[in-house]
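Handoff note, outgoing to incoming analyst
You'll be picking up this chain. Sequence as last confirmed:
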Amino acid sequence: MASVSTYLNFEGNTEEAFEFYKSVFRTDYLGQGFFRFGDMPAEDGQPPMPEHLRNQILNVQLPILAGHVLMGTDSVPEWGHAAKVGNNVSIVLHPDSREEADEFFSALSTGGSVTMPMADQFWGDYYGSLTDMYDIQWMISVSAR
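Most recent structure output, in case you need it:
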């Protein structure tokens, strides 16, 4: 079933922020809870994960109201992404099919810029991200589940 969620970027305090949101909405995390950078599998030719990043949050998902899910991550400035007002929130579309994902991606990226083209990802989803012509950030993800 298609849905929309909100993705939040933090400067190293995602865990603290999500523990606060969890207390406010009185819900529990989806899946394994906090997925950390150190949990990410190494890719061929990549240097080892720096020790100071291993415990940072790669992804967390918390249902809030009416099926809406807050998602979050710690930004990594040395990888080219520092969280700041303007890039710290993305709208995430979860369409029902790859075809629908490709249609949304193509339409929304017209006049904008592609951050990550639609592709299969190590966590199993078909995913891509972009900034539209109005500087709104979008993520599109078709779940492998």
